[in-house]
Every structure is written in structure tokens, then in C-alpha cells.
């Protein structure tokens, strides 16, 4: 007489318990590995983007492209005086993304792997009554689909100036050779667009982090927390979404990750646009404020 062998209930429960323990140990490790991979990919994107900017500068007499200016559409509509970005004009916007795209040949280089659609670029322009640059739709080099729809990296609006954007028309574009500290001058950083009236990531009690409170101008914080309507620097704040780190590229083409409350005590500049003509304030208040040029300008005009 034979007897079928089988696991007892207790044995099955022990096996299930072991599997559950292993899963509880390994799943966070897998999640951390995935987050680290996204961080590395975004760091690589920013590094390559910085290299592309350097190539652009070599072809443009070391002058940075404008953050946005208007041209007419291929059908002749949407013209504006002197390329000014006039809301509701229907013009076609050429941005810093469009200027650098021929040197990257890949629009995904402007995205953040942790949040690829953080900046709905085409929709932002549409909300202003203007249109994204679709000239590359007919360019076989970009396979007919490489205009910028989304991005995950925000520009330093003090570097990529906006002489075609109100309220200060005719501002001069920036020359890379004029920077006093190119290795400390941010070009792009991981960020987002604030579509509403308030930046929800800037809570009044914890906006600056525990170690980033001294010397920061209250008005700058307020402007980033409740940005003015329209197209302005304070609507494109930095975001620390990579394990509480923000990633930035710099004018010497290197890229680096920083903790969300990183401070740069040695980097200061005049702030005529927000705090007053004679105010010397810190440049860069991480994670939200990535605008400014050390020694030259702390905050671009709103």
C-alpha cells in the first residue's frame, strides 16, 4: 500500500512566509536600482545637452540662444514686430530647445526620465495663443516628428535671455565669454512648469530646506511660490525628483546632482529685478531657483 507525498499546511505557510520576507527585502532594492538608473540616464542627458550647447556656441560667436522669440508660420501668418512673443498673436516660437535640437538630433535629450512630460511645451505655448516650432516636421533629418512637445529640463533664464518676451523687450543676449565662473553657471536643471497660481512644491514651512534659510530674499521665494501670469522664469522652477536630488548642467558642459537643499554660499550677484538695484543676494536657491549668473545677475526679470 503506497502513500502519496505532499506538503503539509505548515510547510506551505513557511514557504510562503519566506517568499514574502524575500520580496519585502528585494522590492525596495529593485525600486532603488530603478531610481538610480533613471538618475544616471537624466544626468547623461544633461551632460550631452551641455555638450550640444557648447557646439551651438562655437557656431554662434559664443552667444546663447534666446529662451523664446517669434517668427511667422510657413503660411505667412502669425507675424509679430521684431520677433516679440505677443500672447494671442499666433506666431511660431523658436526656443532654446529648437536652437539646440540640430546639435542633439534627438528631442528626448530634453526630457527627464523620472517625469518626461513635466513641461508640456507645446501646450504652454498654445495657452499663450502662440504656436510651437513645427518647421522640423518637413525635415527628413528628424523623421518628420522632432518638434518639441515635452521637456523635463528647465533653462536658466538669466543665461537664455528673453529679449523678445515682455516686460523687458530688447534685453541683450548673453555671451558665454562674459561669465566670471562658467563652472558655477547653470544652463539647465531638472524642473517643471507651474500651470496654476501656486507652486505646490513650495510649502511655506519647508520651501528652502533645513539648511537653506540664511540670506535668501523673501521676495524671491514669494515670486517662485506664486509666480506671475504668463511666460516667466518663476513658472519654470527646478525640482528635486531624483532621490531628493536636483540635476543641473553648467556652462563649462559638466553636469552634477545636488541634494534638494544644497547651498552655494560663495555665489552672489546683484539683484536689480526683484530685491532692488543695490541688493547683493545668493545666486541659486535650490531646488526651485536655478536662475542667475554668479557675479553678474541673481534673478532675471519676472
Determine Rg (CA atoms, Å): 23 Å
Low-confidence stretches: 139-144
Distance between the termini: 90 Å
Order of helices and strands: HEEHHEEEHEEEE
Verbal overview:
Helix content is 25%, strand content 13%. The protein is an alpha+beta fold and 302 residues long. It has one domain. The strands form three sheets. The protein has a four-stranded antiparallel β-sheet, with helices on one face. It has a three-stranded mixed β-sheet with strand order 1-2-3. A hairpin with a 4-residue loop joins β8 and β9. α1 crosses α2.
Could you give a short description of this structure?
By secondary structure, the protein is α+β, with helices and mostly antiparallel strands. The protein has helices at residues 9-59, 96-104, 121-127, 218-225; strands at residues 68-71, 92-95, 131-132, 153-155, 186-190, 245-250, 255-259, 268-271, 276-282. A four-stranded antiparallel β-sheet has the order 4-5-6-7, covered by helices on one side. The protein has a three-stranded mixed β-sheet with strand order 1-2-3. A two-stranded antiparallel sheet has the order 8-9.
